[in-house]
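Quick entry between incubations.
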Amino acid sequence: MPKKSHEPMPKISDAEWQVMQVLWDESPLTAAQVVERIAQEQDWSPRTVKTMLGRLVQKEALAFTQEGNRYLYRPAVSRSACLRDASKSFLSRVFSGDTRLLLAHLVDAGKLSDDDVQTLKQILQDKERK
Amino acid sequence: MPKKSHEPMPKISDAEWQVMQVLWDESPLTAAQVVERIAQEQDWSPRTVKTMLGRLVQKEALAFTQEGNRYLYRPAVSRSACLRDASKSFLSRVFSGDTRLLLAHLVDAGKLSDDDVQTLKQILQDKERK
DNA sequence: TGTAGTAGATTACATATGTAATCAATCTGG
DNA sequence: CCAGATTGATTACATATGTAATCTACTACA
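Done. Structure below.
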């Protein structure tokens, strides 16, 4: 087994998440391609996107390989690990780590459509049958 | 009806949440009392706590009334409103606004004990009977 | 009544973040 | 072969954040 050095998850900022999402959805991508994808949703200057890419590489949340004179970027941390990490810190910060509180809040705050409720019940069924 | 000016929720930082939680749990409190409560969990200098209090007052997340030569602090924004706001931005940033994804993740990532699952089912039952 | 504690106000300071602009090397079309 | 476009690299700069220390005014004890 390779030694898992359990590097602390890089702390990804709000804006940076946008960029990560793009690359988790599709990668590798050149900076220009990321800029395109981002443009669909955010009104950022291409410079800004480049900055994000640079910072994410520094944080080792992204990696790249040289392709001719440009870079091909790809995630260096898994989306699921980041989701786990972000969920955990959000949960502890806002809901004192009480998952049930969060769930109750979601259900309660009308965050869930009837459909969502059905899906959720299904998920729970499955989990029980597990 | 008083005119609801819908001020944009003040953006509460990670560290500031700690202080808000204390005051949502019990208020009003003097700075010294907040320092005490915080000391239970965090190893912050009393100065640091004072800074948080000051910033939260600026952001109008806290209000105070003078009591002799000291202040009595109390929340100026409701916990539930902040939970709503924080949940919303977390959800959209991390889970692209897909509540079901978040739920699936929570259930899935073993965040839920069997007990939690029961509670959740109960919550759902209640919601349906609503 | 003078002096040491407190309380709040002001200032400090490094790092993070949002949001770019400028620079140097390279590629590309004429 | 050269000028403009394009790339990544470096620099910029205001605001936010974490983490305090210093300053000033008032209070309470000796």
